[in-house]
Design brief:
By secondary structure, this protein is α/β, with parallel strands linked by helices. The chain has 2 domains: 56 residues; 137 residues, L,D-transpeptidase catalytic domain-like, CATH 2.40.440.10. The protein contains 6 helices and 12 strands. β1 and β2 form a beta hairpin. α4 runs antiparallel to α5.
Length: 251
């Protein structure tokens, strides 16, 4: 009976994976060539998601897609509800990795909560280039851009000050970087600038748009380590987040 039950669940998982593959191929063929890189990306994520579902069917762990927060009122209405003037001032952000949530604050007041996608490894702290982990710690926004060149970033991009001083100290202790690189990172952080992005610690980490749904729910683990939102969500507060705004990413 046990073997039979596992076989049935495995077969159901394979059916789901097969359907995802068919959908991804249709997307690939249907989207014109100028955006074929997006189609390939969507196809890959669909297959990865299907693979995790197959693993879940036979007893492995899956990361359940996250529903949007139940309160989906506009930011202006959220500000009014929480007694915050609009447009909001002194914005800072807290990202909770375990909840797949972005908390938007004006001063000490929480205004609104948004669902987010994280790196393919959403559990561990980022340590090195290519580990696909979302970094943890305290950062600041050091660059902003509307309609960035890379299509998968969606409509908005805000670079985080990764690596920070803690990342540099850990990288130095672990032999990933030398003292000169660590000094360069620390100097950039002290001056509130963009830290070196091309080191063994990795870089190019930010908050951006481009999140999408699969089987009707947000795909929550597809980025290379960034924090991604739906385009319409990040567009709602992007203009009010200043360069230098504080961002805390917690486990």
């Amino acid at each position: 009976m046990l073997v039979g039950g596992i076989f049935v669940r495995f077969k159901r998982g394979l059916i789901i994976a097969g359907l995802a593959f068919i959908v991804s191929v249709i997307i690939w063929l249907a989207i014109p060539s100028p955006t074929s890189n997006v189609a390939v990306h969507v196809a890959k994520v669909a297959l990865d998601e299907a693979g995790s579902r197959v693993a879940g069917e036979i007893g492995g762990k899956t990361m359940p897609p996250v529903e949007k927060p139940p309160e989906s009122i506009a930011l202006k209405e959220a500000c009014r509800k929480h007694g915050v003037s609009f447009p909001p001032q002194n914005i800072h952000i807290v990202v909770d990795k375990s909840e797949f949530r972005l908390y938007l604050y004006s001063g000490s007041k929480l205004i609104k909560i948004y669902p987010v996608s994280l790196g393919s490894n959403p559990v561990d702290d980022k340590v090195r280039q290519g580990d696909r982990c979302t970094p943890e710690g305290e950062f600041y926004i050091c660059q902003k851009a509307e309609n960035p060149e890379k299509a998968f970033l969606g409509s908005r991009w805000m670079r985080l000050s990764y690596p920070n001083k803690e990342d540099a100290a850990r990288g130095l202790a672990g032999g990933l970087i030398d003292r000169s690189t660590a000094r360069d990172i620390n100097k950039a952080i002290d001056e509130r600038k963009t830290p070196p992005q091309n080191t063994p610690l990795g870089g190019g980490i930010g908050i951006h748009g481009g999140s999408f749904d699969c089987f009707g729910k947000m795909v929550v683990t597809w980025t290379a380590g960034c924090i991604a939102l739906y385009d319409h969500d990040i567009e709602e507060f992007y203009d009010y987040v200043e360069v230098g705004a504080r961002v805390v990413v917690r486990k």
